[in-house]
Amino acid sequence: MADGGEVLLEVRDLKKWFPITGGILSRVVANVQAVDGVSFDIYKGETMGLVGESGCGKTTTGRLILRLIEPTAGSIRFEGVDILQLRGEAMRRMRRQMQIIFQDPYASLNPRMTVGDIIGEPLEIHGVARGKEKEKRVAELLERVGLRPAHARRFPHEFSGGQRQRIGIARALALHPKLIICDEPVSALDVSIQSQVLNLLKELQQDFGLTYLFIAHGLHVVKHVSDRVGVMYLGKLVEVATSDELFSSPQHPYTEALLSAIPIPDPTAKRERIVLQGDVPSPVNPPKGCRFNTRCPYVMDICRQVEPTLADVGDGHLVACHLRVPVAQAS
Questions:
Q1: Rounded to an integer, what distance in angstroms lies between the CA atom of residue 27 and that of residue 316?
Q2: Which stretches of the chain score pLDDT less than 70?
Q3: According to the model, what pLDDT value does residue 331 have?
Q4: Is 294 within 8 Å of 278 (Cβ atoms)?
Q5: What share of the chain is helix, strand, coil (3-state, %, to 5)?
Q6: How far apart are the first and last CA of the chain?
Q7: Can you tell me the distance from the alpha carbon of 220 to that of 231, in angstroms, rounded to the nearest whole number?
Q8: Which CATH superfamily hosts domain 7-97+177-330?
Q9: How far is CA 160 from CA 106, 167, 239, 247, in A?
Q10: What pTM was computed for the model?
């Protein structure tokens, strides 16, 4: 889907700082700046990819959107409604519109519940269906994700990782949500199974008009499923563009380095690998200025002093980099 459609989700200046306490009185001595000022839109019917190294804040961003954890600051608007202002029953109704597929298909399913109870639980909690009606709905969902209705009587340990993830997808679909947060849904699966699950997600999106926020660290996966991609580094968004534009013309040095690491399925093909020096800085004490300046091969003096802001370099391609957007232009 093209950029510029109807906005489903608006995230503005989203922050999540986790306090670190110390001393006898357990006072706050520092903060882990897991997400620090992230802003983006997700349009109806699209798949927005969110990528970055482990610890960059992408999973935390997804959980903040669902209010599985509460943000430190910022706003999240779903169809124009600020969900951070919702309480009690109003928030419970909103949760029907937003669901999540977790990364680990083994830990995300209760081993003491049957598959039918796992998928049917949200139907009961929200008063959608009970008894025979619930059983019918569960059977339909199982068939839709490629399993059999008879599987409803089994327990999670009786299934493979790919089958368990299909159960997780069925549970996410149970309430007919509009937005699904896919938190690295294929990273724990064998490569041969990953494509099957990805194709299933694309089919479900077309059939039910779903919108996805697809969180991953595998860029090849993101390219396969995403309409637009946001790149995160140390709690910040550093680049946002359409999938084709990002992979063909990356603007941020960090994105360039990530793309250079993607294996090419051709032993004769050559690609210049950009090897970043040093480790990712601590989110407790991030560098001044651009957070990437300690590892950037093009670092300038201004990068160590002034934090770049996301700016449009053409056709909705946003990048936060002084090399691409001089300070005078950004302001």
A1: 44
A2: 1-4, 265-271, 327-331
A3: 46
A4: yes
A5: 35, 25, 45
A6: 30
A7: 14
A8: P-loop containing nucleotide triphosphate hydrolases (3.40.50.300)
A9: 9, 11, 37, 33
A10: 0.91
